[in-house]
Amino acid sequence: MDELRMHSPDLTSRNIDKIAELFPAVVTEGPDGARVIDFDLLRQELSGHAVEGPQERYQLNWPGKREALFAANAPVAKTLRPVRGESADFDTTRNIFIEGDNLDALKLLQESYLDKIKIIYIDPPYNTGNDFIYDDDFAENSTEYLAKSGQVDAAGNRLVANTEANGRFHSDWLSMMYPRLKLARNLLTDDGVIFISIDDNEVDNLKKIGSEIFGQQNFVAQIIWQKVYAPKNSARWFSEDHDYIVVFARNKERWQPQRLARTEDMEARYKNPDSDPRGPWKAENMSARNRYDAGVYPITAPSGRLVEGPPRGSYWRISEQKFAELDADNRIWWGADGNNTPAVKRFLSEVSAGRTPQTLWSYAEVGHTQDAKKALLRYVPFENTANVLNSVKPVELIQRILQLAGRPSDGDIVLDFFGGSATTAHAVLQQNLADGGNRRFISVQIHEPLPVPEPAFRSIFEMGLTRVRNLAAEIGSLDNAPRNLDLGFRVLKVDSTNLSDLLRTPDELGQGELDLFVDSVKPNRTGEDLVFQVLLDWGLELTMPIVPEPIDDHEVFVVEDGVLIACFEAKVSPAVVREMARQQPLRAVFRDSGFATDADRINAEQVFAEVSPATEVRAI
């Protein structure tokens, strides 16, 4: 019976597999027998000439870039543990909140959500010199490293100010962002898209690493968001009234933004002064500056006035024959007295149902920072104003992104791995209410204590949960709320692996300690904890329904009506094995120590081979 891996995928090994498929000659053995890449041979394979040494090439480089690449590929022996007490509608919801370092979370999501995320929005640290920075170190235990380097306070809080006095001011920010964006790209669907909020400090660097990770050809736009409604008179040089939103597609040829609803002002431009039965219309200029040889001819107005031709330096946009056809169809407007320069009538009924999105987003349409704070204060009962975040984004801004990025009823998964106060989760629920959509969210936020303790919540993560709970209660009380609107969420927390550290050298292990190293599962982990680690390892979505089903006094978990069935009891009876096999699941998993002998384990495999041969059986 094969054993589950029980850690995040080794992306380095996966990349070597891909290279080996293309260039088998460049894969060789390292000193320890592991597969490695001969990079000199690989460079030669990818070059059109004989390679002698390092070649200069156009790229962004910084101190620590190789470590950042390693950070993206290195596996982590961690898991996601469910917290039912903090969740809402745990058994039925398809929304997820994750508390923990987003680098760990992104690695843990690699199998279950590979190519499944349609929309990513993130509002990462802007690197202003004072904001929160994730500091990654893989050379030693993270707790030891942070304590040694003075990056935690007396309570163990992991807060790092990346000040400009730091000689690696930009490098550290790039090293933080690079592996996270690289992992995020893996999760996007082929027609997926990522929106990233940023300001002037790092927008240039962000575009460069984005182009490297997503491909320069997949850069879509750099949107300007007008974030304030009044200039800052205290500004030393210019009042900074905008932020940027940088947009990359996974595959630009596959993704197109949805059109936005037409505004009332746009509709008001259409009138019907001549009572045309085809409805309201507006007059469009018939001349253009682009050269059109067939667009030079005289026209006689109904009043008898001769229009000798288009205005100097321009051309009629249509040929003389087409003009005659439109005039005969009453599609040319000559003015109320029949003496105007002709214009083409464009009917409202014939224009597109939507408008093309633009790269300038005004606060009048998508909100400003004060709107964002008001929304946060509406749903979070702060007792200390010091805890109100200054960098929070307006819900309307994220709703605009949701409107553009996908269709309401496609069941899109929306990921925000800098979740903060849960604005993205808020926007998903609000937009689903507005258009009847069925979008889902995954929001990730590191444990970050509040500046001042609050009686109702202790961290920014818990603040976000409070916000969404109160919003859900408000939406649920509305008479017009759709019955099938998902207002719940599962809370998962990044934690160490569920498996015990059983590796010991003979001289480290005493005879009396042997019984302590029989079971591979940590004593404080529940069966549901193990189910979620198995879901991660098998690449199954973390919102699948999980139903505990007692069989022969054993706790058995049935996931998604038989996609997976699991029993993690300390002793597994033959009756349980046979009943689990009788249900013919796609996958079955047991605790390895649940079988008293090797013979019991082999018998279990034979039962499945006889009763449910298609089931994949594994152990942890």
Summarize the amount of helix as a percent range: 25-40%
Number of strands: 27
The fourth-level CATH homologous superfamily of the largest domain is: Vaccinia Virus protein VP39
Question: Would you tell me which CATH topology of the largest domain applies?
Answer: Rossmann fold
Q: How large is the radius of gyration?
A: 31 Å
* Strand ordering within the main sheet: 4-22-5-21-20-6-7-9-8-19
Number of domains: 4
Major sheet size, sense and barrel closure = 10 strands, mixed
Structural class: alpha/beta
The averaged pLDDT comes out at 85
Q: Give the number of helices.
A: 17
Main CATH class of the largest domain? Alpha Beta
From the 3D coordinates, which CATH architecture of the largest domain would you assign? Answer: 3-Layer(aba) Sandwich
Low-confidence stretches: 137-154, 513-517
Shape: elongated
Cα(first) to Cα(last) distance is: 10 Å
How large is the share of residues in beta strands? 15-25%
Explain what you see.
With 620 residues, the protein is α/β, with parallel strands linked by helices. The protein has four domains: 2-57, no CATH class; 78-261 and 356-496, Rossmann fold, CATH 3.40.50; 285-347, no CATH class; 506-619, no CATH class. Helix content is 29%, strand content 19%. It has 17 helices and 27 strands. The strands form seven sheets. Strands 4-22-5-21-20-6-7-9-8-19 form a ten-stranded mixed beta sheet, with helices on both faces. It has a six-stranded mixed beta sheet with strand order 1-27-26-25-24-23, with helices on both faces. Strand 24 and strand 25 form a beta hairpin. Helix 6 (169-187) packs parallel to helix 7 (203-214) and helix 13 packs parallel to helix 14 (460-476). Residues 137-154 and 513-517 have low confidence and may be disordered.
